[in-house]
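tokens incoming
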């Protein structure tokens, strides 16, 4: 096992990794930007090194500075968390060439799944259903028109280097397709230095459901069921739950098998997530794969009673999976609210600044993963998530009631947060019945739903 790990991240996920390491007897080295000097991850790690100014491109994204810190601190491994360098294949390669273990998949796996057309192709080869669409990338407008005619409108134009909703466009007819094809390519070139796009038929009013998988470096893969992630606004998730109210045990089994087959096919040896669209007839389609630990891994941990970060570290150290699929079963229900420093009444405007009071809820079945404390100043340089509130219950209703109670108990003064909106969602009768899809939040806010924005 590793003796010392550098945590190449900040905020709650840095704490999450430091906590796992501490319990495993692994020493930790935190890195931080100048504005994060007083952060909890700096205080709770065994050691800390400043790696540059607040701007992420000058600190948390600066590969040479992170590698220098790793060399000076003499660590065996780097945990990238999520965001920043977590899905940067070049960074994983640099770690390898410096003899530092990257706690994640191989550079080849990151690269293959980072190309969304390539991921789609891998899914097809593994016999995993994908949304009807183009075979690989579309090179010119004639080809786009031909494929769209075959699929039928509306179609989605997606950047191969996109993902998470970035670089997507919808077309309802030949005219908007030709226009969208060119603007999507121009935008993708600017955003990702890669203009390639592919086409998919639009799935109407789907659920976004993702499967947690875990592979070792010896060819074994298991899954830990799904997370329902349909409560989102502009691709920012607000609430996630495990299990999904939509899935039957049979559908869970079939989707889980598909996710595992795809991971095995690409030789995946770490924690990862397979994203699917699911319609209410029970059809499911692979969308893309995330080759990192995700924000919402916590709900899976509660329901499957596992520590995914510890397991991810053990897999990176070369251990074999300590269980097989038959040993893994869900128990109860978990919900997560992402608490963001944003004003939901003001178009979700970020609200950085001083947190005058932070009193997190507690009690049975309540988990808080947060780096905030009373007196903490939220910098404006990073994302606005200030914590995750997770509740567990024997069933969905208990988890929901516990979440409402915990949100009421949560006192945050000095900044606006998403909590009022989350309280409203929890009171919604359709949400309580578990009847909701990707359109839910827009409908609640009275925003018109374009088939896929
Ligand atoms: C889609 C879709 C409908 N049909 N593809 C958005 C994020 C990216 N992962 C893919 N996304 C979508 N792809 C087809 N063919 C609807 C979405 C989508 C969505 C997906 C996941 C989570 C939130 C979403 C919000 C709007 C649209």
């Amino acid at each position: 096992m590793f003796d010392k790990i550098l945590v190449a991240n900040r905020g709650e996920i840095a704490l999450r990794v430091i906590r796992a390491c501490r319990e495993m007897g692994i020493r930790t080295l935190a890195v931080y930007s100048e504005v994060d000097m007083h952060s909890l991850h700096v205080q709770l790690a065994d050691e800390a090194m400043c790696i540059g100014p607040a701007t992420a491109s000058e600190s948390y994204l600066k590969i040479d500075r992170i590698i220098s810190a790793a060399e000076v601190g003499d660590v065996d491994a780097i945990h990238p968390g999520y965001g920043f360098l977590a899905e940067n294949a070049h960074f994983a390669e640099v770690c390898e060439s410096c003899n530092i273990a990257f706690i994640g998949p191989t550079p080849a796996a990151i690269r293959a799944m980072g190309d969304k057309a390539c991921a789609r192709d891998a899914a097809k080869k593994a016999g995993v259903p994908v949304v009807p669409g183009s075979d690989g990338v579309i090179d010119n407008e004639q080809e786009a028109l031909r494929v769209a005619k075959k699929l039928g409108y509306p179609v989605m134009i997606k950047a191969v280097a996109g993902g998470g909703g970035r670089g997507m466009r919808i077309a309802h007819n030949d005219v908007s397709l030709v226009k969208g094809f060119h603007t999507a390519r121009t935008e993708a070139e600017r955003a990702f230095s890669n203009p390639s796009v592919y086409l998919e038929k639009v799935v109407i009013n789907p659920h976004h459901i993702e499967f947690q998988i875990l592979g070792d470096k010896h060819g074994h893969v298991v899954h830990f069921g799904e997370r329902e992630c349909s409560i989102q606004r502009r691709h920012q998730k607000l609430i996630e739950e495990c299990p999904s109210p939509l899935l039957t045990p049979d559908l869970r089994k079939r989707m889980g098998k598909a996710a595992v087959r795809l991971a095995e096919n690409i030789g995946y040896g770490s924690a990862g997530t397979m994203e699917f669209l699911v319609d209410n007839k029970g059809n499911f389609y692979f969308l893309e794969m995330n080759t990192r630990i995700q924000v919402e891994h916590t709900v899976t941990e509660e329901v499957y009673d596992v520590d995914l970060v510890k397991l991810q570290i053990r897999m990176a150290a070369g251990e074999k999976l300590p269980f097989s699929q038959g040993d893994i079963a869900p128990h109860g229900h978990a919900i997560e609210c992402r608490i963001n420093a944003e004003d939901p009444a003001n178009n979700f405007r970020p609200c950085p600044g001083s947190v005058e009071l932070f009193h997190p809820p507690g009690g049975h079945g309540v988990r808080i993963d947060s780096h905030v404390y009373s007196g903490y100043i939220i910098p404006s340089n990073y994302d606005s998530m200030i914590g995750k509130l997770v509740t567990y219950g024997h069933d969905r209703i208990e988890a929901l009631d516990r979440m409402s109670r915990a949100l009421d108990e949560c006192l945050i003064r000095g900044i606006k947060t998403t909590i009022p909106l989350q309280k409203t969602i929890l009171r919604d009768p359709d949400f309580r019945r578990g009847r909701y899809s990707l359109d839910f939040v827009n409908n609640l806010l009275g925003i018109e739903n374009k088939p896929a924005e």
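note: The two ends are 45 Å apart (CA to CA).
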